[in-house]
Structure formats: structure tokens, C-alpha cells
């Protein structure tokens, strides 16, 4: 706040009106005043005088140096979070630790485009591409990972997220083909980044996503 405002005031002075805009909702963080979880709507902004008009009027006095900022509604939380501690990554049946793991699925579809067509033409499924990207710290077993990557070793991959029945997600890939890891420096540590292609064994069995 750039100036004191009394209770029920609809015009307030801030330090810099350029950070606010008409239609926005604001609150006084210092006073914990957010209009009973509704926010105060900004109806006009005067950047020359750093004054903004709000509706309804503020419920109590706001003092100089009070922190006035944007207000956003809070939605109710649905379900329970899947904690990181409940995530398990298994490669070739062995659980391991890693910095990050990204599973990518690409199932592109193209449409024929011919003169005389008024709508998209026949859909054609092109080549699907799925992969798993890992990043982990370079430890004593790094030589083994480098060797497996250089040889393109094929292993099984399983990722389990959550441990509570009914809220558990399992991603299983019976066959992934390792690629040569890239060696990176991260502050005082050395990391390996590796990408593996997800392959199928027979027909449509490359990936299984199971809710347990």
C-alpha cells in the first residue's frame, strides 16, 4: 500500500498500479483480508496516481506498506497425492534410484488431403514411437550401464506409482532397447542421461498401463 485506506473504502493507493489490471481480484496479505475468500474486484486502474478502484469496499483499514497482491480461488482437493516415496522403477527386474524418468508415447495420425475434399480425408496411422528417458547419478555401476547402452541390450521396464490399493498405477514395458548414455556434469556430481526405445514382443503388447 502506498497510502492508508479506511474501512469500506473503494479507492486504494498502491506502490505501482502497473502490476494490476481491470477485472483482476486482489487481497491484502498482511491483513489476511480477501473479502471472505471472494477477493476484491479491480474495476478501474489509474497508473498516473497509482490508484485503483475496487468492489466491494474493503472490510477493514489497510495501512501503508501492507502487501496487496492478486487473489485466486482455491479449489477443493480431489483424491490423494501420489508421494514420490511410493514410486518404484524396476529395470530388468531390479529396483533402482534415479533423478528423473519420463515415459513418452507418440501415436501420430495423418489425413489425406486432395483437391475436391471439403473435409479431412482418410485417416492414416503413421509409425508409433514410444520411449523411456532416464537421468541418474554416475555411481559404481555406471560401467555396466555404459556397456549395456553401447550393446543396445534389451530389458524389461516397470514403473509403479503409489502403494494404496485402488490408487496405484503401474506402467509395464516387457521390452525396451537401451541406448548409449550421455555423460553430464551437474555441480559436484556427474550424471548419465539415457533414452531407451519401447518395443513390442508380439502385436500390441509394447506398453501396459494398469490401475490397481
Would you kindly provide a brief summary of this structure?
The protein has 212 residues and is mostly beta strands. 5% of the residues lie in helices and 42% in strands.
Could you walk me through the main structural features you see in this protein, from its secondary elements to its overall organization?
The protein is mostly beta strands and 212 residues long. The chain has two domains: 11-70, no CATH class; 84-211, Pnp Oxidase, Chain A, CATH 2.30.110. It has one helix and 16 strands. It has one helix at 142-151; strands at 11-13, 25-28, 40-46, 51-55, 68-70, 87-91, 94-96, 100-106, 109-111, 123-125, 129-137, 154-161, 169-178, 182-186, 189-198, 208-211. The strands form three sheets. Strands 6, 7, 8, 11, 12, 13, 14, 15 and 16 form a nine-stranded antiparallel sheet that branches. Strands 1-4-3-2-5 form a five-stranded antiparallel sheet, with no helix packed on it. Strands 9-10 form a two-stranded antiparallel ribbon. A hairpin with a 7-residue loop joins strand 12 and strand 13. It is elongated. The two termini are 52 Å apart. The relative contact order is 0.14.
Amino acid at each position: 500500500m502506498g497510502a492508508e485506506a479506511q474501512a469500506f473504502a473503494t479507492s486504494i493507493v498502491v506502490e505501482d498500479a502497473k502490476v494490476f489490471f481491470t477485472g483482476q481480484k486482489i487481497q491484502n496479505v498482511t491483513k489476511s483480508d480477501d473479502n471472505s475468500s471472494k477477493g476484491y474486484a479491480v474495476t478501474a486502474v489509474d497508473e498516473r496516481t497509482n490508484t485503483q478502484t475496487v468492489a466491494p469496499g474493503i472490510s477493514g483499514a489497510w495501512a501503508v506498506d501492507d502487501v496487496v497482491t492478486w487473489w485466486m480461488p482455491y479449489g477443493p482437493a480431489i483424491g490423494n497425492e501420489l508421494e514420490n516415496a511410493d514410486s518404484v522403477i524396476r529395470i530388468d527386474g531390479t529396483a533402482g534410484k534415479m533423478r528423473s524418468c519420463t515415459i513418452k508415447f507418440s501415436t501420430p495420425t495423418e489425413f489425406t488431403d486432395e483437391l475436391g475434399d471439403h473435409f479431412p480425408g482418410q485417416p492414416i496411422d503413421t509409425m508409433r514411437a514410444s520411449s523411456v528417458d532416464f537421468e541418474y547419478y554416475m555411481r559404481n555401476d555406471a560401467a555396466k550401464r555404459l556397456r549395456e547402452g553401447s550393446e543396445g541390450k534389451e530389458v524389461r521396464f516397470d514403473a509403479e506409482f503409489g502403494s494404496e490399493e485402488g490408487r496405484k498405477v503401474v506402467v509395464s514395458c516387457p521390452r525396451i532397447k537401451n541406448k548409449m548414455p550421455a555423460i553430464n556434469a551437474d555441480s559436484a556430481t556427474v550424471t548419465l542421461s539415457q533414452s531407451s526405445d519401447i518395443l513390442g514382443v508380439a502385436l500390441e503388447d509394447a506398453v501396459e498401463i494398469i490401475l490397481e
